[in-house]
Amino acid sequence: MQDSVSSTISPKKPWLLTVFAVLAAGGLAAMPFIAGPPSDKMPDVVRFIGHFHPLVLHLPIGIFTLIVIQELGAIFFKRGDERQQNSLFPLFFGVASAIVAVLAGFLLYHGHGDEYGANPIAERHLWGGLAFAIAAISTFVIKAWTVSSGGNQLFYRLLLFGSVGVMGFTSHDGASMTHGSDYLTIFAPEPIRKVMGLPEKKEKAPAPAPAKDSKTLAAVSADPVVYTDIVAPILERRCVQCHKESKSKGKFRMDTYELLVKGGKEGSGLEPGKSADSNIVVRIELPKDDDEHMPPEGKSDIEAPEIAVLKWWIDNGADPKKALSEFVLPAPIKEAISKLQPAGAAPEVQAVKSAQSAPDPALKAAVAALAKEFPGALSFESQASSGLVFTAVSRRGNLDDASFQKLMPVTQHLVSVDLSATKITDQAVAQLAKAENLQLIRLAETGVTDAVFTTLVKLTALESINLYGTRVTDAGISSLANLPNLKHLYLWKTAVTPAAIEALKAKLPACDIVTGIQP
User: In this predicted structure, what is the pLDDT of residue 23?
Assistant: First the structure.
């Protein structure tokens, strides 16, 4: 039984079919100009139909692939009888499915406004799809005329292979939008990479082993940079998939710090120091049934420890370069960081247990008693640690040597102390000589002098010291060379000279010395 489409067309010249094909191709080509730019205000039915694009696009891809295989068989192996080669139905079905896929893709593009309108790959994918559909229509018309006249199929086959080439390029753009531009080539063997002109694949360096004696929170680094090693992996897992170069939803990219701050069509992504006013936090904390809630429905929601860390980082200035040791970490934040899941993140951040043992009842009682004297200033670094964090932010000018002496019963348990802008002097710091686990101390804008170094050099666990705006000089600063774990030192607005700083850098090459003095 003759193929229905073939029997209809073959006996006579396919003029009517050609007219319909020209109208269809012209309509597809005119659509972008008639519809204008994409918009977020499209009716829901547009988005509804558009979301079928990923479902139907595989149909023309499969059909045209089979047709190409059939034609290659006829060319190289002389397989397939004349009836099979003259059949128009497979190509007709392929063209029809291509038109449906392109129409759905067009509605998907226009129904999501700036998410795709600001994306050059999405725009190229749209035009590639239109070009493929028009080329497929042209191929079908040429095939019909070839069958009708019994002519040579060379031109038809050239047009077919060209159409499939456009289809392949367009499909790659679609995959790049969903999976990334290197999705197809990331695991390509070296010979194939050379043929494709891709750079040589670099072997991943083995991950560093966690330091056995580390008392910090990160196993990847002794002192991780908070944005790079903790915040960025959270954003990578939860947000970047929809806010990157190939897919910037709302014209907002989150794959770099600069673009995160810049924001998108709704303004800045974050407000340093104000998490409550930061767009990324506002969107995350919307009810889940709100259309503006992020991540959107169908994506893994951000977890409580992750949002806690994000808000804490933003509230503390959202600095992209500060290391963990430069912050005073409240117990809830340390606990939140310890719960972060490193799987799939790069670089990874994995929590390790503190070297401190769990607090005993006597210590808990002592801290509870001191909480009345220092409300909100003294806390455990975590529930499983006897290490204590003290910050005088709420007291500032009211804290002096006498009041600080009240902490004597718990001094040896201190791991972080912030005395910035208080009235304390060298006498109060001398009390910390027993704090053998102290890792961070901030003495900025206090009355300490070079005498403070007599105490500091005994605290070999120190990793960060802030002496901003104090009266320290060259005479005392050189003694810090005896602190093997020192990684951050702040000497801005002190009497320390450039020569002394250079000498200390030579002895502590791994220490980052921050100073406003120009050498």
Answer: 93
3-class DSSP string for 374-405: CCCCEEECCCCCCCEEEECCCCHHHCCHHHHH
Tokens 């002192």 correspond to: 223
Locate 82 and state its tokens. Answer: 């004349």
Order of strands, sheet of 388-391, starting from the edge strand that comes earlier in the sequence? 378-380, 388-391, 414-418, 440-442, 464-466, 488-490, 512-514
| Tens-place pLDDT, residues 93-112 | 989 998 998 898 888 877 76
Coil vs helix vs strand at 243: strand
**In the numeric block, which tokens belong to residue 147?**
């069958």
What is the structure's pLDDT at 250?
63
The tally of CA atoms less than 13 A away on the side-chain side of residue 409 is: 12
Q: What is the pLDDT of residues 337-356, one digit of tens each?
A: 877 744 333 332 333 334 45
DSSP reduced 3-state for 225? strand
476 in Cβ contact with 450 (< 8 Å): yes
For residue 484 the two structure tokens come to 């093997």
- Between these two residues, 267 and 432, which has the higher pLDDT value? 432
Q: How would DSSP label each residue in 31-86?
A: HHHHH-S--TT--HHHHHHHTTHHHHTHHHHHHHHHHHHHHHHHHHS--S-HHHHH
Q: Rg of the chain over CA atoms, in angstroms?
A: 34
How far apart are the two ends of the chain, measured CA to CA in Å?
Answer: 93
Tokens 């077919």 correspond to 160
pTM: 0.43
Query: What percent helix, strand, coil does the chain show, rounded to 5?
Result: 50, 5, 40
